Amino acid sequence: MKLHWRTFAPLVVWLVLYLIPVPEGLAANQWHYFAIFAAVITGLILESMPVGAIGLIGLTVAGISGYVEHDPNKSLRWMLGGFAESTVWLIVGAFVFSIGYRKSGLGRRLALLLVRGLGRRTIGLGYAVALSDVVLAPATPSNTARSGGTIYPIVTNIPRIYGSEPGPTAGKIGTYVMWTAFATTAVTSSLFLTALAPNAAALSIAKKIVNVEVSWSQWFVGFAPLGILLLILVPLLSYIVCRPEVKESPEIVAWSGEELKKMGPPSRHEWIMAALVLLAMFFWICGSNPNISVPFLGSNFINATTVVFVVISLMLLTGVIEFEDIVKEKSAWEVFFYFTSLLTLSSGLNEIGFIKWVAEGYAKPLATMTPLMGTILLVTFFFWVHYFFSSITSHTAAVLPVVLAVGSSIPGLSMPTLMLLCVYSLGLMGVISPYATGPAPMYYGSGYIGKGDFWKFGLIFGLIYFFGLLLIVLPWLQMV
């Protein structure tokens, strides 16, 4: 491996933070653990080496240092804990779904149909991709299943039709299509209460702390002014930010029609793959919701990741894919090691009390603030502290109670408004980093969005979404 300044930059960050005197209120192990986390994030941003390697090295250093668990055996169990996380396997499963779409030919057929219908202009494809997420979102409580398992395997076939492959030609159209799909799912996850599992968990926490209940329709009405606006703007904003080289291509529309004729009627494997996808969506929508009864199941609830294992097994049994295809899917296993490591490292920040220290330190000066300023600062903290998390669920459990408790101590502050602004931000904050939400590692590892570009686009869209909350949703909530 050729040595470069980017290789040493994470080490410099770690060393500088390690040598800085430990801040008041923290133990040495907490601060030194944060130094490792900061070094890993630096490595990811600068692309010091493959992302999976960066995460694995950081996790190993944290584990042998005993910052989270002093006992070597317990420390090892902590290091391996992320490999059992259901979200990680759901992501890997979504990659395997992509293999099925690709090998069966169904992905290419669906991509050609989209291109034939809306591919004359690139921005038309962007709106088609966004609309597909909107249609699925209200009934799919896992954005990883929705965007990663259903939309990603289809849209990843579209750029290839235009000669846009991962790498040097990604900018032709692939970057735009993939980023539009990812940025859209962040919006739909906040627009519908049932589009993101942590939404319901957040409302449950809020009810216990501030005794505020919100119905599905109240949730939608409160976010609709921003959510609908963003759904209209995201394909356009992505077009401006990603700057696709292919602007319009009428000849591709005609060509795609000819290619569909050449493909002929759907093959046996295409029909099987289509049936398996519909089966997965049925279980994601019904079986993954404990409030919906599915009589022929042993119970009324089946985890979204279990659905993935069931469908992959059926794909293997029916010959749609072979086990060798799974083993050879390099991008899936790179994302597996990268996201597993980041999930464990970020959860460690919460386990050792670092997040609580940051939250309490930020909250102390707010007691004397005006209600409006207190609301804005608390929402700001709640949104951007997500850079420390790779799980929206863990973010909700760790930070929301602190923010609501601090807000209740500020005289005159509207707790329903603060609570709604926080829970609305759960989906939106998923756009800010390549580990911020379940589908993020898939799009990050697709090869269509440059590693550095992902961080840049995430910051741009994160700022747009965040200021939309403050400038549109906050006044709207105060009126209604």
Question: What does the model show?
Answer:
This protein is an all-alpha fold. The protein is built from 23 helices and no strands. α11 runs parallel beside α20 and α21 packs antiparallel against α23 (451-479). The model has no long low-confidence stretch (mean pLDDT 86).
Sheet having the most strands:
none
**Low-confidence residue ranges:** none
Could you tell me the radius of gyration in angstroms?
23 Å
- Total helices: the number is 23
Helices, strands, pairings?
Blueprint: H1 5-19, H2 28-46, H3 51-65, H4 72-81, H5 86-104, H6 106-118, H7 122-136, H8 143-155, H9 158-161, H10 174-191, H11 197-210, H12 216-242, H13 250-263, H14 268-287, H15 304-317, H16 323-327, H17 330-351, H18 354-363, H19 371-384, H20 392-408, H21 415-428, H22 440-444, H23 451-479
What labels would you give this structure?
single chain; 23 helices; 480 residues
Short description:
The chain has 480 residues and is mainly α. The chain has helices at 5-19, 28-46, 51-65, 72-81, 86-104, 106-118, 122-136, 143-155, 158-161, 174-191, 197-210, 216-242, 250-263, 268-287, 304-317, 323-327, 330-351, 354-363, 371-384, 392-408, 415-428, 440-444, 451-479.
